[in-house]
Design goal:
Blueprint lengths: L7 E7 L5 E4 L5 E2 L11 H12 L5 E12 L2 E4 L2 H8 L7 H7 L1
Antiparallel strand pairs: 1-2, 1-4, 2-3, 4-5
């Protein structure tokens, strides 16, 4: 019996700035997890990951991360990905500064 595929998003880090980024359905890289393409087919996920890893002049460390559908787009499933989506752990810069500024 085959295992059920868990939906995924493709995440990486911006090569120049180091920010966590997500591949969108229209082939952009976004800093917002909710804009990521939610992929629910394993073969399509692998094809999209190959596409992402070929962008080595812009990104580093692309991988598939488990996600689920949410009211505003994909949401992280695991703590690690939720932490990465929130940004740095201090408020002086990055995504968290934008929320608290």
């Amino acid at each position: 019996m085959s295992r059920r595929f868990t939906p995924k998003v493709i995440t990486a880090n911006d090569l120049r700035e180091g920010d966590v980024i997500y591949l969108t359905a229209d082939d952009r890289w976004s800093r917002n997890h909710s804009e990521a393409e939610l992929i629910d087919d394993e073969a399509h996920a692998e094809i999209r990951l190959i596409h992402a890893t070929r962008q080595s002049s812009d990104i580093v460390g692309a991988y598939l991360a488990d996600a689920k559908s949410g009211p505003h787009g994909p949401e992280p499933v695991h703590f690690r990905e939720a932490f990465r989506a929130r940004g740095p752990s201090n408020y002086a810069h990055g995504k968290q500064a934008e929320r608290h500024g």
